[in-house]
Specification:
Radius of gyration: 28 Å
Strand order of the largest sheet: 3-2-1-4-5
Number of strands: 7
Shape: globular
Structural class: alpha/beta
Number of helices: 18
Length: 411
């Protein structure tokens, strides 16, 4: 282990560096700029204090992202991303005066590694293709969430003046507001008055331009005409026109969000399918190309990142937490977790219910008294263990080995 430790307090325009020795003494401090020259100054400082490829000096910083972190990871050294809340608690150990400075914070980060390096884990050494999948999968997930917010805004707005649009494009078995056909019709008819004037030929032309409709187009035309011409509550004419202009603006944002989702989905699929782990990941039930990419993005492809399957399950929030004190003993769902992976895991487990073995596992948990969410989380926990085993051993999923038997539910 290196006897020198580095702490970096990062900021937008500059970064403060502190080096401490094994005895806690500060060996050097430096403020560098956030550019290539500053990074070279940092490497020169580390080199003067014994940094070399065989024994690189570990670095602690309060963020896992950014160009500085990426360049430090590219040098092959261990970079520890310290939670800012944890760093604040360490700061209180050194001083009770509540004094704070960037240089002092850098020294605190270096001392965290010096005293408790075993309590923290370095950033994973994911491959370049794995990091590319992570960027695209997270961007696509964000785009989907953003699109959902825009759909909710549009739905709330339509409810105020255009109830026929909600009846036409919201609900089970109907086209959603984010569908190309709904957006095309609302763009052509953003108010109830213009919608009521749509002829059959006009509706047919709009629907055809929007793409293939997976239902009878004649039946859809008659349904829409009946809804748009039915008696509905209306706003005042000028107010209705103004609200129609707002709808047009929201539709332009929604169109851009839908295009972004489609473009990022395609890029994510291409990057994921070229990754060597793709075949193994998609061999598990419930994992498609996109959901598999999200799982790979959060787990990474560094096989040494997790000690065992229990660590993976805790990281994903699939494993419960036990709180025991005196006579109190409670088992609850884990709240501190990777929320992106947990969100993907919920959809993964839900989709896996179409397969025989996962469905049987879920039904056993339900028969044992668990509610739907708890049983689904337990299935996610089981599937994560299977995925960890498959990735570690470079083998495809085998349902006969994964679900060979079941244990009785814990009381």
């Amino acid at each position: 282990m290196s006897r020198v430790f580095c702490g970096i307090d990062w900021a937008e325009g500059h970064h403060d560096i502190a080096l401490v020795g094994q005895d806690g003494s500060q060996l050097a401090k430096l403020r560098i700029s956030d550019d290539s020259a500053g990074f070279q100054s940092l490497l020169e400082l580390l080199s003067r204090h014994g940094d070399n490829p065989a024994a690189p000096i570990p670095v602690a910083i309060e963020t896992p992202r950014g160009l500085l972190v990426a360049c430090l990871r590219a040098t092959g050294r261990q970079v520890y991303a310290i939670n800012p809340l944890a760093a604040a608690r360490y700061r209180d150990r050194a001083s009770v005066s509540r004094a704070k400075s960037d240089a002092a914070d850098a020294r605190v980060l270096a001392n965290i590694l010096r005293t408790d390096i075993r309590a923290h884990r370095p950033l994973p050494a994911d491959s370049e293709p794995g990091q590319a999948v992570a960027v695209l999968a997270r961007a696509h997930q964000d785009a989907v969430w953003d699109k959902g917010q825009l759909v909710n805004r549009l739905r709330s707005h339509l409810r105020e003046y255009y109830p026929a649009a909600l009846l036409a494009f919201h609900g089970n078995g109907r086209l959603g507001l984010d569908s190309a056909h709904a957006r095309a019709i609302l763009t052509a008819a953003p108010t109830p008055a213009t919608a009521a004037k749509l002829t059959r030929s006009r509706l047919r032309a709009i629907l055809n331009r929007a793409g293939r409709l997976r239902r009878s187009i004649d039946g859809e035309i008659e349904r829409l005409r009946e809804l748009f011409r039915s008696e509905q509550l209306r706003q005042l004419p000028m107010v209705e026109q103004a609200m129609g202009r707002q709808t047009s603006a929201l539709l332009q944002q929604l169109d851009a969000a839908c295009r972004s989702c489609d473009d990022l989905a395609q890029a994510t699929e291409d990057a994921f399918l070229s990754h060597p782990d793709a075949e193994i990941i998609t061999s598990l039930p419930g994992l498609s190309v996109l959901s598999g990419a999200r799982v790979l993005a959060e787990l990474g492809d560094d096989r040494t990142r997790f000690v065992d399957a229990k660590a993976v399950k805790a990281y994903a929030g699939a494993a419960p937490v036990t709180r025991a004190s005196g006579r109190s003993h409670v088992v609850v769902a884990r709240t501190v977790k990777n929320r992106r992976l947990a969100a993907a895991g919920y959809m993964w487990a839900f989709a896996a219910l179409r397969s025989q073995e996962p469905r049987a596992h879920y039904d056993r948990r339900r028969d044992g008294g668990e509610r739907h969410t708890a049983a689904l989380r337990n299935l996610f926990n089981k599937l994560l263990g299977c995925l960890y085993h498959c990735l570690q051993n470079r083998t495809l999923y085998d349902p006969e080995r994964a679900f060979t038997g079941h244990l009785a539910l814990a009381v």
